Amino acid sequence: MTTYIMLATWTDQGMQHVKDSPRRLDLAKEALKDMDGEFKSFFLTMGDYDLVAVYEAPDDAVAARFNLQLGMLGNIRTHTLKAFPEAAYREIITSLG
Questions:
Q1: d(CA 38, CA 29)
Q2: Which positions ≥6 away from 54 have C-beta within 8 Å?
Q3: How sure is the predictor about 20, in pLDDT bands with cuts at 50, 70 and 90?
């Protein structure tokens, strides 16, 4: 599984219905699970982003599909980072020669 870090901000629509956010999170978790992925961590944050999630998905196509489906609902806008764990980081750096 590949790890992704999703940074999200509420849209005006999402903010107007912020009290529904926990229910929407549950639906997002279920949608990702149906794609063979899994949320690992979720945070409400202060600063440039309102929400941060760490999740795993089988591949980039699944992660892209998941993010697009979230965006189509109109409640959040996302920026997603593909994350490399420490072992992969070390292997990448070592292979530089």
A1: 7
A2: 3, 4, 5, 6, 39, 40, 41, 42, 83
A3: very high
